[in-house]
Task: structure prediction
Amino acid sequence: MITFFQVLLFGTILGGVYAVMAYGLGLIYGVMRIVNLAHGAVLMLAAYAAFELHARWRIDPLLGALLIVPAAYLGGALVYRHLVSRVATGPPMAAMLLLFGIGLCARNVAYLVWTGDDQTIALSHGLRTVDLGAPVPLTRLIVFGVAIATTLALFVLFRFTHFGRAVRAVARDPIAAELSGLSVARVSARAFGAGTALGALGGVLLATLYVINPELGGPFLLKSFCIIVLGGMDSMPGILAGALTLGVAETAAGVYGGSSMQDLVSFVLLVAILVGRPGGLPSLVRR
Amino acid sequence: MGDGTRLLALLLLVSTIACTGPQATDEIVLGATLPLTGKESRAGLMFRNGYTLAVEEANAAGGVTVRSAGRKLKVRLELLDDKSESTTAVQLAEHLVTIRRVHALLSTYETKLVLAQSVVPERQAIPYVTGGGAASEIFKRGFRWVFGLLSSVEAMAGTFVDWLVREQDAGRLPRPAKLALAWENTAHGQDFRNGLQARVATAPDRLSLVMSESFELNAKDFTPLMLTLKAAGADVFLSDTHYPDFILQHKTYLQLGLRHAVVSYGPRGGEPSARETLGDGVNHLVSGQWWTPELPYPESRAFVEKYRAKYGQIGGYYPGLAYEAARTMLAAIEQAGSLDRESIRAALERMNRTGAIIPGGRVYFPQKTGFQIDNPSVLVQNMPDGTLRIIHPPDATTGAAVVSRPQ
Result:
């Protein structure tokens, strides 16, 4: 007998995993109105970086994140400054296509470097569970904790720091921000770097849960997109709420409708939100 | 049409005829594409080793006797990289037949690629042996030129049932036993489900199916599936998975503290990397294989020794199947006594070759299955010391199965 409590519990935990992977996409969209189609590649490359650190020097992925996340920030800022900024003022489709191309390049590089073999990170606590009325995998609980902590950190960052205020100003009105003395290009580069760093954090955490291969990021990109639409596109608490909703909806669909229904739920929700909420993605894409 | 255009058209026609004409008969040319790069590259590289070893072995024996040539002919392998892409696999197979003018084709690896590529031999009327695709969908299209060395996934499901019945007879498994089935929503998984359902229906006093749940390939959460499994109260859990899904499914299975008398993920479970990831959690998993290096047949052991001497460790069933596929094609050419495509095809259809390294030891292609072999699969079980024990078929077992007490 499967209880509703179990559905809620496991759904919430799954939502935590989804939130972590979607924050980076949400931040970049929120600031630049660009759907980062290279987000899946960021998740995948960060997962491989965590794998390499663990395989070569037995560095725990959470510790490895201390190296990977800053490196991703730098990488993201450089990609913005040298590539994305060239098309950032044009139609959104140009930037999306550019990022799609970057994502494809990254995936093919991954095939060259790591081949198509499936890799895993074997953690000593990989099979450990915590009893919360039902056995909850420790690894998923850690990811859930990171999702909550990240939401809080982002809230503080955007509300109480100069960088956060600058990002919000650029997101609201880039021309007014420029006139008031902010360098929009610099803020955008830093925001793109931060979004990439968040994506990398998601990738590192995903590496502790899933098998790593060059295709890892693809399904998560689609799911992240559903989540940011569900969560209101540019709000970090909204993304967390969207991720938790999706996690519970998928788990309920899997339990009550069959496992094959799980993925269907996210896309049904995506269509329902886009149709039922005219102020959502269509208006944002038109800008 | 001007004279120049006519001349160009004539030249094109002549060159096309020349390109599609028969290969010169001073050597036998086998063509193949393999996923040497891309997501199937690991298997593709091992397939290449298997094909290469079979060709080198034939050449070391002086070649293959071709009666129409009056002597032994050396064998050459034309191998191209299809990059794990279906369209490339099709295009390159066409190229091998029309431009490189090979005498026969060996297949690429992976069901989807083989399914796509196998239209080429049918279109070009050239013999094609595959050791890389098992889905019955490949062979249910009434094709004349495609011959399958892997038993169907349906047959593999039947092998599991045969073994479960043997375990019941040995008193190690309850009778009747309750089965829970999870199958991936692909041609492969549907074949597994169909095979299992058909066999269970013939033995209602032995087995009952209490759960049959599908799941999507590369799913990211198996908690609902495992909760359903837990609620089903089965004795035996059978799933048919690809590797990433196997790892995530079994990890979730272990984390939820599930336990069954028999647990299997179809062909998965015996990989060394699975033990690295899941530790002792993989102990006693049962997996179905089309070939395994542990098979005690002398021919199989000889192959394993040759392979290890040249390439090192064998990782999985891939090189054995490739080796046997190439040997089968060469045996058909020898039996045909010519490089005529129709004669080679007829030899494959008539084939009843013993001494093969695959389970059952015999290669034959029954017409009723669309020229797909119908041998049993080999079932292996992970032992706590890290070794694999063959538990089925009876002529190859290396020890008794360990069947736990269901929870």
The first helix of chain B runs from residue 3 to 20. The two ends of chain B are 83 Å apart (CA to CA).
